[in-house]
Amino acid sequence: MILTVTPNPSLDRTYEVPALERGEVNRATGERVDPGGKGVNVSRAVAAAGRRTVAVLPLGGAPGAVVAELLDAQGIEVAPVAVAGATRSNIALAEADGVLTKINAPGPELTAAEQELLLETVHRQSRGADWIACCGSLPRGLAPSWYAELVGRAHTAGVRIALDTSGPALAAALRERPDVVKPNAEELAEAVGCRLTTVGDAVKAAEELRGMGARTVLASLGADGQVLVDEHGAWFGTARVDVVRSNVGAGDSSLAGFLIAGGRGPEALASALAHGAAAVQTPGSVMPTPGDLDPAAVTVTATVPVDRALKEPVT
């Protein structure tokens, strides 16, 4: 079972438009309403793969009730933490060429009592979990050290934990040595304070992140692929994508694929790549099913092309 923690969930409405024209009336060609938040998306991807998952998240108001209903309809067990503020509502505009414009609301401010109840709920639900995946930004009221507290408690309970966050929250959590961290290229560069222009730069930055406390680093480089660095070495992988429809939740689907496959080694990296590639070829934030995966489109190698220039450098 994979337990997910989403401190700042959302109700996401995605509109597909041919092309976004500012200041004009834009007519959508498609519309979806989904439960949102990075941890929520990981649970949705795990459930789509036919695996058991439990989603822990603070929920409040009418949007929170809709999020719970949508998750339940997808076969996801929900462990809600009732909060006074209303769950945020987000809007995404997906253009035909793959460009995505997002408007994310700030979300409610959690009280000290709500914060502690969230931690206690995670501890209670984590019994028997193979992994805890805590993902996304922290809502108002939660200090950057909140994720560090969560990682420490998970390890005390003997549960492996994967973390997908950035900035001060990531920096604070590293001292508790999370089992997996999953930054994208921008987050990786920010965490170690360097430029990423080649695959080798990304591997070096991942190694630095391990030196700061991460046990395993799974770094997404967007269209350039992914790198995996742990105590056994480094691997690089790519996946062919024929048509990009939406990258909403692609990184979360990738993390789900990694954890489903055991959360370590090149086989898990290949699973992460297959899930991420399938996700970007689905509309909105639809999560791929096993039938959507194309393992033959994935390439993983321990011979890392360190001099390969990134198509999307971070400078």
From TrEMBL:
UniProt keyword Nucleotide-binding, yes or no: yes
SUPFAM superfamilies, A to Z: Ribokinase-like
Molecular function, one GO term: 1-phosphofructokinase activity
Key words, A-Z: ATP-binding, Kinase, Nucleotide-binding, Transferase
Highest taxon listed in the record's lineage: Bacteria
Pfam families: PfkB
Major enzyme class: transferase
EC number: 2.7.1.56
Residue ranges annotated for the Carbohydrate kinase PfkB domain, each copy included: 15-288
Gene3D superfamilies registered for this protein in UniProt: 3.40.1190.20
PANTHER family in alphabetical order: 1-PHOSPHOFRUCTOKINASE (PTHR46566:SF5), 1-PHOSPHOFRUCTOKINASE-RELATED (PTHR46566)
Family the UniProt entry places it in: Belongs to the carbohydrate kinase PfkB family.
NCBIfam families, per database record: 1-PFK (TIGR03168), pfkB (TIGR03828)
Name of protein: 1-phosphofructokinase
Native organism: Streptomyces prasinus
